[in-house]
Structures are given as structure tokens and as C-alpha cells.
Amino acid sequence: MRDESLSQKVLQNIASLFKDTGKVVLVHGGGPFIEEALGSAGIKSSFVQGQRVTSPEAMEQVEMALKGKVNGKIVGYLNHLGVPAVGLSGKDGALVTAVKKVLSSNPEDDLGRVGNVAQVNTELLQLLLVNDYLPVITCIAADINGEDYNINGDNFAGAIAGALKVDAYICLTDVDGLYTDRNDPSTRLEKLRVSDIQLMIKNGTIDGGMIPKAQSCMEALKKGANKAMIMNGTKPELIIDLFKGKNPGTIIE
Questions:
Q1: 3-state secondary structure string across the chain
Q2: 84 pLDDT higher than 80
């Protein structure tokens, strides 16, 4: 997402996929753009257990970055490519209901406006899909009291994929999939069972930023997705290869 040319190539391949299948939902985050917005607003970030604390003031900047900048740019480019894209957040049509993320009972561990997905209502998405639109959703949602929350983009996407019972949930990252040894490309795993994921997280084979991606695949499959895949978004041509029967990443079933 930092590379304009690469972002456009990814969207071009998603546009091709949409034109071939007619049924695509795109979910995105935008960490670098959040950092930029907070810096411009003079808001310093603090972290608890590696997670950013989001104050109400920071939440305003998060929403402006994700919904106003990133989402609007993606939607505009897809429409330029001839794809009828519609920009959304979890707040639109009460698509996603959030719940505050609680790390512990210690007040010092309070993350502020950081949430988890409590519920997904697919009615609006189904309406858009049946009328041949491509929904583009960013990972912001409100709770039952109307308070806004920023939600991890991977977890947000996995919950939506599961609720829609999609044929395929594709999680794009910057590596070719999951490995038994991430320093050795030859150890890429072509297929995994859901039961393997927890074991790999526990023994440290899956760590860092790959954990929420793997967990999102588990969530999607648990809630009804047919299959999940982690693959390299910096090689956008692989998106089309996947739907030609090839396996360019790690499939989880």
C-alpha cells in the first residue's frame, strides 16, 4: 500500500477478477496512513503489548485516514477501471458491530478505541453483490452505544468472509505464504489444516504480524468460508493464477 504502482497493479488484478466472477469483496486497513495522520495532528502513539492505544482524538484521525483517504482512493481507482466499487466502513448499514478489546482488568492495559468484531450483518453486502457492485470496506465499526472503534484489518476481514460464507478468503501479505522456516523459501507450505494453525502459533513457527492473518483464516473457516489462503500481494498476478487452479500461496482448509 506504500507503493503507488504496486497498489494499482493489485487493484487492476482485483478488477479483472471481479469482471470474471462478478462477486468480490475487498477489505483493507492502512497502518502507514494512520501513522501519517496522527503525526500531522501532533498525536503521539503509545503501545500496550505491541498494540497502539487509540484515544477518542486519535480515533478521529484513524477514521479520516482509513475512510477518507485510503478507502476513497481505492474506490476511485476501481471505478476508473470500470468497476462499480462502493466505499464502506463497518458503520455503514450496521455492517459490523464492534466490542471494546480488553487485554486485562488492569487500567494500564486499556487500549482505548480498539475493538473486536462482535457481529456481522451481511444484508447490505448481499444487496450490493446481487446488484453487481464491488464493496470496499475499511476496518472501523461502532459498538451498540455508537462509540467508534478501530479493528485489526485481518480479523475484520476474516469475520466478514466467514459471515458471507465465501468460496475463498484471500489474505494478502508480503511473503509467499506460511513456512516451516521463514528464512528458507523452499519450506513454503502449500496446504494446511485449521488444526495445524494453533500448533504453529504455539510453537512459534507462525509469529509476529502473521499471527492475526493466520487467526483470521481460522475465523473465516470456522464461520463458514469454504477455504482460506495466505499469499503474496506484492506479486499481484498471482491473484489471477489462483482462480486458474494454481496454488501460489498457502491454502488452509
A1: CCCHHHHHHHHHHHHHHHHHHCCCCEEECCHHHHHHHHHHCCCCCCEECCEECECHHHHHHHHHHHHHHHHHHHHHHHHHCCCCEEEEECCHHHCEEEEECCCCCCHHHCCECEEEEEEECCHHHHHHHHCCCEEEEECEEECCCCCEEEECHHHHHHHHHHHHCCCCEEEEECCCCCECCCCCHHHECCEECHHHHHHHHHCCCCCCCHHHHHHHHHHHHHHCCCCEEEEECCCCHHHHHHCCCCCCCEEEC
A2: yes
pTM (predicted TM-score)? 0.94
CATH for 1-151 (3.40.1160.10, 3.55.10.10, 3.90.190.20, 3.40.50.12780): 3.40.1160.10
Q: Identity (one letter) of the amino acid at 4? A: E
pLDDT exceeds cutoff 80 at 1: no
User: In this predicted structure, what is the pLDDT of residue 127?
Assistant: 97
Q: What is the pLDDT of residue 208?
A: 86
What is the DSSP pairing of strand 51-52 with strand 47-48? Answer: antiparallel
- Grid look-up 462509540 returns 147
Residue 31 has pLDDT above 90, yes or no: no
Please state which CATH number belongs to domain 165-253: 3.40.1160.10
Q: What are phi and psi of 185, to 5 degrees?
A: -55, -25
